[in-house]
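Researcher: Next sequence.
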Amino acid sequence: MEPEAAAAWERRLERAGDLGPVHPTLLRHLALPLLQRLEAGLGNGTAQRRPVLALNGPVGAGKTSLGRALERLAPLGGLRLMVVSIDDLYLPAEQRRQVLAGNPFGVSRVPPGSHDLPLLLAALKAWRAGGPLRLPGFDKTLAGGEGQRSGWREQPADALVIEGWLMGCRALGPQALEAGLQSGAGLEALTTEERQWLPFWDRHLAGYKDLWDACDGLWLLRPQRWSLPRRWRFQAEARQRRSGGGWLTADKLDGLVRATVRSLPPALYQDPLLRPQPSLELQGGVILDGRRRCRPLEAQLSSLASASSAIG
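Model: Next structure:
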């Protein structure tokens, strides 16, 4: 960050008070640089359109808590920011069941194809034309933990952050996918059935290209190890159960977590995000350890780009 802008955001952070269960290092290494990026783009008068940033992070990484912190910090710098989860854009339950029928994880949401992309793109177009941002909500605690659409959120906003575990991931196409399968790198834990379904997920992922093209930058919450998301998600579910909210059985929860690391194996779909992407610039991010403490992504970029991912 530019020194003066960085100092200004540090002062705002000190004034912000309680920002919930977000580790201070995550605020300083990701939240503040992201907000400064938005402030600079909106403040120089050259923005061609209202900015949308994509935030990619695995299940359990704290994306929801980080989003709330961003929305509380942004107004201190004069920014009207809305943070939404791509999971808020799940298709209605019956459509999801049809799309995902027979999948190897036994899930009715999560993998590519379960999101209402036309609705999201239409909302972005109307908002960038000057209207308010109107998007649905999704309550994961309803329907016995399967989740369903719940109300709408409408508000004026100058900028938008969309977070989700597959944000920015690109379809490979049949030939590149086959080459990845032949290499076997990072795919050892997949069952035969899960491997057979990869072309199906890849075809559905191709439909997300228009959304990635509508985004102006990519930010990553990358786990140190791909076994961590499962631990984090089970911890979150335990907290939800203690609070009296709807919760999933262990087998259903395991299916949801596996769906995020096996429908799009990190070695094939997450690792490429560390390299230059067409029309979607990697602007920043962090590496999270088991306690969700973080260090800046930049220091690890070269080594991570050449390393193979292990699926936990």
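Model: The longest strand covers residues 148-155. The two ends are 34 Å apart (CA to CA).
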